[in-house]
Prior knowledge:
By secondary structure, the protein is an alpha/beta fold. It has helices at about 15-25, 45-55, 70-75, 90-100, 115-125, 135-140, and strands at about 5-10, 30-35, 60-65, 85, 105-110. The chain contains six helices and five strands. It has a five-stranded parallel beta sheet, sandwiched between helices. Strand 1, helix 1 and strand 2 (about 30-35) form a beta-alpha-beta unit. It binds D-ribose. D-ribose binds near residues 10, 67, 68 and 69.
Amino acid sequence: MSEPIALAADHGGVELKTMLAKRLVELGYRVVDLGTHTADSVDYPDYADRLAACIAAGEAARGVLICGSGIGISIAANRHRHLRAALCHDETSARLCRQHNDANVLALGARLIVPETARACLDVFLATPFDGGRHERRVAKLS
Ligand code: RB5
């Protein structure tokens, strides 16, 4: 069965969320779309909380969060001890957050990066394994 990936965004990220959902389907993942679904203004912490609950419930192991800058939604996500959300602006940060930090959430700022870069970050985030080794101890100290 295909791996579920949870997706959530505020109104600033809703368009990019739609684009990345299509990409996930192309890659063979199952999308768990936690909203929002319109351009009406909402509060980004509520969507980080939805994704945290989804991962805690075992409905997905990994997720993507999007707001205008990616900042608010990544701060909100990292208040949950079981989430390691990484705000990424390029492929290098998307790769490193997996290799060194075992990030389980990719956070993106829809107003700060172009869609092609967001897609590249998603692809790299999903494909890159955790390096383990010396990073295990550091990641363990996060939670
Ligand atoms: C919403 O206007 C905006 O503040 C939000 O998407 C995000 O950028 C917050 O960090």
